[in-house]
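Dataset card, provenance and construction

Sequences and ligand SMILES were collected as paired inputs. For each pair, a complete structure of the chain with the small molecule in place was predicted and serialized as C-alpha cells. The example below shows a pair involving zinc ion. Curators did not alter the output after generation; any descriptive sentences attached to a record were derived from the structure itself.
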Amino acid sequence: MELQREKRIGIDLGGTKIEAVVLDCDGKILLRERRPTPPPMHQAKDRYQAILEAIAALLKEATAVAGPDAPVGMGIPGSLRPGSGLVQNANTTELIGQPLGRDLRELTGHEIVIANDANCFALAEALSGAGRGYNLVFGIIMGTGCGGGLVIGGQVRDGPHSIAGEWGHMSIDPAGRKCYCGNVGCIETKISGGALQKIYQEQTNEAIGVAELRKRALGGEKAALFIWEQFLEDFGRAVGGLISILDPDCLVLGGGLSQIPELYTTGLEKIHRYSFSIDLKTPLLANHLGDSAGVIGAAWLGRL
Ligand SMILES: [Zn+2]
C-alpha cells in the first residue's frame, strides 16, 4: 500500500484535448491517456458538464493504475480565484465562474489540486526538465498567446490573486493593439504566435503561420522582415524587463514559438540590451519536456 501512495496522477485540461498520466515515485510515466475535450455546445452548462464527465472517466482509468489514494493534480487554461475557488481567466470560457474543484470532488470523490497550466509547465521543467537544478525558474510559454509561471525552490509561486507569472498581459505599448484582457499593447498582442499572424495579415491581407512568416523574413520579403525584426526587438524588451524584476536563475521557453532558433541568438542579444545588467548570464533554455510538461507538472502539484 505504501508504494501505491507514491504514485501520482496528473491531468491536463486543454481546449482541444484532456490528458492524464500516472507517474511512479521516480517520475516515470506508467500510464498516459488522452481524449478530445468535448466541443462547444449550444448551452455552456452542457459543455461544462461534459468536460466534468470526461475528466471523471480519465481519472477512473488513472486510479485503476495509481490506486484510489494517489494524489491528483490538474492544470487548467485559467486559474482558481483565491477564496471562492471559482475559475477565472480561462480561454475555455464555459469554465469561468464554475466551482470546478468542488464539482469534481462531488462527482469523483477525489480532492484535486488545480493550477494554471503555465504554472504546471514551469513546475515540470523546474523539477525534471531544462530548469532542473536552478532555484528560481521562470517558464515562458509562447504559443497562440503568451503565458508564464514562476517556480521558486521547487514550489509554484501563485500569488494572492493567482496571477503570478502572467507576463503576457503586461502592457508595454500604450499605442498598441487592444488585448482581449481589456488592456492595450500587452506583450501577448506583440510577440505571441496569434499576434504575429494577425499583424502580417493586417499588412498584406494574407493569412500565414509563424513558420512561413519566418521563412519569408529570412528570405528577405520586406513586410515579413520588418515584422520579424520588430518581433525580436519586442521579445528582448519584454524578457529583459522580466529579468530586471525577477533576476531568475534561468528562463525556460515553451510553446510552439520556443522552436524559433533566432530567439536564442538575436533574441538573447536584445534581452541583454534591455536588462539592467552589463554582464547578463541568465540562461535562456529550450524546454526538455515538450508537450508533456503540462501534464507532468500537474502530477507534481499533487505531491504535497
Ligand atoms: Zn492582455
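Derived descriptions for this record:
Residues 222-246 form the longest helix (25 residues).
The mean pLDDT is 94.
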